[in-house]
Specification:
The complex is a heterodimer of chains A (277) and B (271). Chain A is elongated, with a radius of gyration of 31 Å. Chain A has 8 helices and 7 strands, in the order H-H-E-E-E-E-H-E-H-H-E-H-E-H-H. In chain A, 58% of the residues lie in helices and 16% in strands. In chain A, strands 2, 3, 4, 5, 6 and 7 form a 6-stranded antiparallel β-sheet that branches. In chain A, strand 3 and strand 4 form a beta hairpin. Among the domains of chain B are: 60 residues, no CATH class; 51 residues. Chain B is flat. Chain B has 8 helices and 7 strands. The chains are: A alpha+beta (277), B alpha+beta (271). Strand 1 of chain A pairs parallel with strand 1 of chain B, so a sheet runs across the interface.
């Protein structure tokens, strides 16, 4: 039976018992102030019993820990399957595997006629109704990770700087030195532009989960469900969706992948500047 | 069921007031009982008001998983990554015009469907921060939904006939009942045309980053306001999610409900 019911019954029965004591005990044994106190306790227990309807997950840890930061779980929120194609978490005795499906939609409304726009909207409506079991469809706007590109630009700049130094030391022709300096200015401009502008990427994906008594069972069912969803999405949109694997999965799960490290320093300094102004 | 049982305790408590010997004590007892009744009723229909109030008052925050923290106002999940704070908030986003709630003419719906892709693109272009728009859907049993809708329509038709037979026919009431019947009729007709009934939960998720928790939370609130402005062009109802639903949506990042019933129990108020 659900743990929720036990918690509810515990508080409810306690509330009733306290109320019976308050109501049935004669005033000679239990004076009116004590009865009032018991009534208050009974009402509090009654409210707690009702709260267990939604807040069982909090009530017990709250009572056990009695601290200002209640730890519901100290474990990682998930882990990846061995094939790195599913996200797994434990729920009670069961395992839940979740598969992410990338939907490559590159069409823009600006290049569609009215009929095509209507058709597109209908396809989206149809997409949402594909799966009988719960599935989630997401449009995600995230900042592009430009770490690698910025590093490449910095490497190029230091290479061109070395080239300039060598030319100056070896008394190279003024024309060559000018050309290298021009090249250096160009790469610096590109780096400034790339570092100063936030680039966003809009991606679409679907998510489906399955429950299993064993980890491999949950993964297997989730992958099966995902394959069914893949064919549904493919036929509805005329695109080739794919199951997301490896590190790319983190783009859809972890908040720090929405705003990669390269853009943070720039964003924070911008915020600080705005605050100062 | 919960309300009935807990309400029973209230009734018993009221009847036991006499055992306090009357006077001031009985009066104070009655006040306690009425306050408890009020709390129960608010908890039943708007627990998202009481719960953040209590946690905010007690200064209690929760750790739903390693490195994550649900703040005491219950409206954001904060992740600490090497001293940087990522605050994530959720906003409901029920798109009415494109769901069963619509009762407009077919032509009006088509116009909205034509405009939707462009309106969406324009809204996205105006947003300068990361966000996710989620539509969680689950298919429903066609026959069950149809029977339910027909039952509701029959009830409304009965109400309409009663309203029409009244001595002073109230035009407002009649129009309202007719509107309800039209909505139900539209839903039944759409199922008849082969459209599959689905249950959906639609919501936005946005993340802000800051060097302190407060900075991240302030930026998150600003982003949510901007999101509301950007989406004002779409026929969408936005409301910031607080309390237990925030915890549920946080869990959806790692696993979804596997059955419709599981999803419905988490969002009985929204659905």
């Amino acid at each position: 039976m659900d743990k929720k019911i036990f918690v509810f019954l515990g508080f409810f029965i306690s509330s009733v018992v306290v109320l019976i004591i308050a109501g049935s005990a004669p005033l000679t044994i239990l004076p009116a102030p004590a009865k009032l106190l018991l009534l208050l306790v009974s009402m509090a227990l009654d409210i707690l019993a009702f709260s267990s309807r939604y807040y069982t997950y909090l009530l017990l840890p709250f009572m056990q820990q009695r601290s200002s930061n209640i730890v519901l779980s100290n474990e990682d929120a998930y882990w990846l399957s061995t094939a790195s194609d599913s996200v797994i978490r434990k729920d009670g005795e069961d395992y839940i595997a979740t598969v992410y499906i990338r939907i490559p939609v590159y069409r823009s409304a600006t290049e569609m006629s009215d009929d095509e726009k209507l058709d597109f909207s209908r396809r989206v409506s149809r997409l949402v109704g594909i799966s009988k079991s719960p599935a989630r469809y997401t449009a995600e706007l995230h900042m592009m990770n430009k770490d690698y590109y910025i590093q490449q630009l910095r490497d190029t700049i230091s290479k061109v700087e070395n080239e300039e130094v060598q030319l100056v030391q070896n008394n190279g022709s003024p024309g060559d030195i000018e050309r290298v300096r021009g090249k250096l200015a160009m790469w610096h401009n590109i780096l400034d532009h790339i570092g100063g502008v936030q680039s966003f990427e809009l991606t679409h994906y679907a998510t489906v989960s399955a429950r299993g008594a064993k980890e491999y069972e949950a993964v297997s069912i989730a992958q099966q469900d995902a394959r069914e969803l893949l064919s549904g999405i493919g036929s509805t949109f005329g695109v080739t969706p794919s199951i997301v694997t490896g590190k790319e999965l983190l783009n859809y799960i972890e908040p720090e992948y929405l705003i990669p490290f390269s853009t943070i320093s720039e964003q924070i300094s911008k915020n600080v500047q705005e605050e100062v102004i | 069921m919960y309300l009935a049982f807990c309400g029973l305790v209230i009734v018993v408590a009221l009847s036991s007031l006499g055992s306090m010997g009357g006077g001031a004590y009985s009066l104070i007892g009655a006040v306690f009982i009425l306050v408890a009744l009020g709390v129960l009723l608010v908890m039943n229909w708007a627990d998202f008001v009481i719960f953040p109030l209590v946690t905010n008052l007690l200064g209690v925050s929760f750790q739903p998983a390693k490195d994550y923290r649900i703040v005491k106002t219950q409206d954001a999940v904060v992740k600490n990554v090497n001293g940087l704070f990522y605050a994530t908030g959720y906003v409901t986003a029920n798109v009415f015009a494109y769901t069963f709630k619509a009762e407009q003419q077919q032509q009006d719906q088509e116009l909205k469907a034509v405009q939707a892709p462009e309106t969406w693109e324009r809204a996205v272009m105006n947003i300068g921060f990361p966000f996710k728009y989620h539509v969680l859907s689950a298919g429903l049993d066609v026959q069950k939904v149809r029977d339910e809708l027909e039952g509701k329509r029959s009830f409304q038709e009965f109400q309409l006939s009663r309203a029409m037979q009244a001595q002073n026919v109230n035009e407002m009431t009649v129009t309202e009942i007719q509107r309800k019947i039209n909505v139900l009729q539209t839903k039944i007709a759409r199922i008849g045309e082969g459209e599959k009934p689905i249950a959906t939960i639609m919501y936005f998720e946005t993340t802000a980053v800051g060097v302190s928790e407060k900075a991240a939370l302030d930026l998150l609130s600003a982003q949510i306001k901007q999101l509301e402005v950007a989406m004002s062009g779409m026929d969408v109802q936005l409301a910031r999610i607080v309390g237990r639903e925030l915890y549920t949506l946080f869990q959806f990042n790692f696993s979804l409900p596997t059955t419709y019933e599981e999803a419905a129990t988490n969002f009985d108020i929204q659905s």
